Amino acid sequence: MIWFAVGLIVIAAVAWGFRFAGQAATRQAPYFRDMPFGVAYGYILAVVALVWLVWAYVQGHSADPLVANKFFFLRIAVEGFIICATVAWLFRLAGRSIGTAWSRKMFRAMPLTAAFGILMILIYAFVAIFAPWLAPYGQEQIIPGVAANIVPGGDPALGGDPAFPFGTDQIGRDILSRLIYGAQNTVGIAFATTLLAFFLGGTFGFLAATLGGWLDQVLSRAVDVLMAIPSLIFALLLMTIASVWAPRVGIPLTVFMVLIIAVIDSTRVFRLARAVGQNIVVMDYIEAAKLRGEGMGYLVFKEILPNATAPLLAEFGLRFCFVFLTIAALSFLGVGIQPPLADWGTMVRDLGSFVNYAQFAPLAATAPLLAAGAIAMLTVAVNFVVDWMLQRSSGLKE
Fold first, then answer.
1. What is the pLDDT of residue 322?
2. Cα(148)–Cα(151) distance, rounded to whole angstroms?
3. How confident is the model at residue 234 (pLDDT cuts 50, 70, 90)?
4. 3-state secondary structure (DSSP) of residue 90
């Protein structure tokens, strides 16, 4: 603790010296003259953090296994960040040269984070669609003659197998194949659930905004009641009840899960659609359409919906993330996507015990982190794209 306090004091002294030296060297240029001490402190702290990161990365390649193990995950994170940034830059560079005039213009105005997000979404979609052809084994296949708990990495000296680069789980199934099928199951079901949530919430929201009156009051109060209950707890309660009824009525539990999550998340979509719709229905072109005698369907689909596309698209990305994480959480708790279907949340739960070996065998601990990383990567990618879409729709300059 004493060394930590001393370090902060030293950084503060260096920051003061940095600002003073900058003022003297530039003869009181406005940038250094008006620089607050907190900004100078932040610069020095960032440099210290960068130096430590480089030092830790070098330690991750140490010949001493004990030292290398301590910084194994940091080394993987740094290398992964560099690879992702490079691939995103190349993807954006290619998009600026290939494609239509509209797409090239879009890529020229696109930040690197949005390019990374779009690339990841395309990769996930490709893997989900072509999972049966990409996966070397079936998602529930227990491979004969293959040992269980093979360590990821493919190094036989560390307990790996070149034929199974991501290792095998506790009953001898290929983790790579289950990750690929997990994209199809988890992402596909989340996408379908989000579409259903938007259909329900958007339809009732626009109707409430257009008709108003008692229909608006009934729908709004019902939505308020549902939103007052924590969504994950409510979904867990309903899924626990559905797990009892599903075998009796002969309907897969996944169907109940889609309906439950779609209804719960449609309340958020309803609030947005109603708010946006109320701002649109007072416009002059809506009144003109009513005077022409246009019906409700025309008003909703031809007038209101096209003018509400931007906020709804941004909300679709956010809702997809929440639905995706809710499905993963329910599967982790054992009431979501059921075996033998591969699911990332279930994989994290089943392989979670391997984290206990992180200090001694980091490669073994990466088994549950593969599925957790797939969840985190898609969530971050979608949020990057949503942030960019919100910035574009707001009219702000990058």
1. 86
2. 9
3. confident
4. helix
φ/ψ of residue 250, rounded to 5: 75, 25
| Most confident of the following: 118-127, 278-287, 316-325 | 118-127
Beta carbons within 10 angstroms of residue 233's beta carbon: 9
pLDDT tens by residue, 271-293: 888 888 888 877 777 778 777 77
- Phi and psi of 336, rounded to 5°? -100, -130
Judge contact between 68 and 59, C-beta under 8 A. Answer: yes
Measured CA to CA, the distance from residue 172 to residue 146 in angstroms comes to 6
Task: Name the one residue in this structure whose structure tokens are 């940034």.
Answer: 85
The residue that leads in pLDDT, 38 or 197, is 197
In our burial notation (b when 16+ CB lie closer than 10 A, e otherwise), range 83-118 reads: ebeeebeebbeebbeeeeeeeeebbeebeebbbbbb
- Pinpoint the residues of the chain covered by CATH 1.10.3720.10: 182-397
What amino acid is encoded at 117 in this protein?
A: G
pLDDT in tens, 352-362: 777 777 677 77
Burial class (CB in 10 A: 0-12, 13-18, 19+), 282: exposed
Helix (H) / strand (E) element for 38: namely helix 37-59
Q: What is the DSSP string of 294-312?
A: --HHHIIIIIIHHHTHHHH
* Residue 326 near residue 336, CB atoms below 8 Å: no
Q: How far is CA 260 from the centre of its chain?
A: 21
CA 196 to chain centre: 19
For the chain, how far is it from start to end, CA to CA, in angstroms? 42
For the chain, give the mean pLDDT: 82
* Rounded Cα–Cα distance for residues 278 and 219 (Å): 14
DSSP code of 164? Answer: B
Using an 8 Å Cβ cutoff, are 208 and 220 in contact?
Answer: yes
pTM exceeds 0.85, yes or no = no
182-397: CATH, from 1.10.3720.10, 2.60.40.10, 2.60.120.600, 3.40.50.150: 1.10.3720.10
